[in-house]
Specification:
The chain is of the alpha/beta class. It is built from ten helices and eight strands.
């Protein structure tokens, strides 16, 4: 057994890679998912966001909590494959205001998204108000400025995975960055008129559940102070092998639906002394049905979170027909 707190990066890599289950079969000519969902506008109202989950080469970072590698390629992405995937999805999706191009890694990783494809990708994205891509802070550089310019009309937004503002946990997650690295990348984007979205985890390995709320709050505050317009709260998911092993060791408890509810409720309550909200906070509801919750009221509670995302304020928990206590 490797004690991840003391292990160096090479040992953590070996630990994470050695526990992986099989990779899913994917087609480089097709995205592995696409859908449209509603999001709130920063100035009120709602928008429709078309999200395309691109199939590309695996991210070079092997984060301890990540399961996105399951739908990636082991070799560099073939040139022309990404525009083909985007075109395939857009032909099958209804109209939308925002286009999210999520690629299970970094949009500005040359082996994941060939630089030669950027111009065609930008051409396919014209007509949207905003284009959102994701990137590791280490790869935020002038390539984001060139892509911003290629887009022309749509506003570019880059999503960074801060995950947590707890430096020790961040190191043990094998994220390959510090909070200072995150702030540096965020500052670069904002100076260059690129919007910032941030991913924050709900439910951290190595941290007792009683400390999760404070850790999430601090991470959200750190994100807004760095200039984020939107913070997405993502429940840490089982399924990558490593988290199952940490659960066996007693170092991880999977977050429940109630944990996600409390994280969003806590932000909207606006406790005294908290930094003023300067943007949107969203509960990420992808695969929310897999979160532990009483089956009698789980669907109604997920729907409540969906409504809270849109109106950006708390709603009462729906009464449960079976009288459970919303555990």
């Amino acid at each position: 057994m490797i004690e991840l707190g003391a292990a160096d990066r090479a040992a953590r890599e070996e630990f994470v890679l050695g526990l992986r289950p099989a990779r899913d079969a994917v087609d480089p000519s097709r995205p592995y998912g696409f859908f449209v969902e509603e999001e709130p506008r920063g100035d009120g109202g709602t928008l429709r966001a078309a999200t395309i989950l691109l199939t590309n080469r695996e991210c070079p970072w092997h984060c301890l909590m990540c399961d996105l590698w399951k739908n990636t390629l082991e070799a560099p992405t073939p040139k022309g494959a990404i525009p083909q995937q985007i075109r395939f999805a857009l032909e099958r999706l209804p109209p939308a205001d925002t286009l999210k191009l999520y690629n299970a890694g970094s949009f500005f990783d040359r082996a994941a998204i060939p630089r030669e494809d950027h111009e065609e990708i930008a051409s396919l994205a014209r007509g949207f108000e905003r284009v959102v891509v994701e990137c590791h802070p280490a790869l935020v550089d002038d390539s984001s400025l060139r892509f911003r310019d290629l887009l022309g009309g749509p506003r570019l937004e880059v999503a960074l995975g801060l995950e947590t503002a707890n430096e020790e946990i961040l190191r043990r997650l094998n994220k390959g960055m510090t909070v200072a690295d995150f702030r540096t990348a965020a500052s670069f984007l904002l100076r260059n008129r690129i919007s910032l979205r941030v991913f924050v985890l709900v439910g951290l390995p190595f941290l007792p559940r009683k400390e999760w709320a404070a850790a999430t709050r601090r991470s959200v505050e750190t994100s807004f102070r760095a200039g984020a317009g939107t913070v997405s709260l993502i429940p840490t998911r089982l399924g990558n092998g490593t988290l199952e092993e940490l659960r066996r060791q007693g170092q991880f408890q999977p977050p429940t639906l109630r944990d996600l509810e409390m994280a969003l409720e806590d932000f909207f309550e606006g406790e005294e002394g908290r930094a003023p909200a300067t943007g949107l906070v969203l509960a990420d509801l992808w695969d929310a049905d897999a979160l532990a919750a009483p089956p009698c009221c789980a669907a109604a509670r997920v729907n409540r979170l969906r409504k809270m995302n849109l109106i950006q304020r708390n709603l009462p928990l729906p009464p449960c027909p079976s009288g459970c206590r919303h555990s």
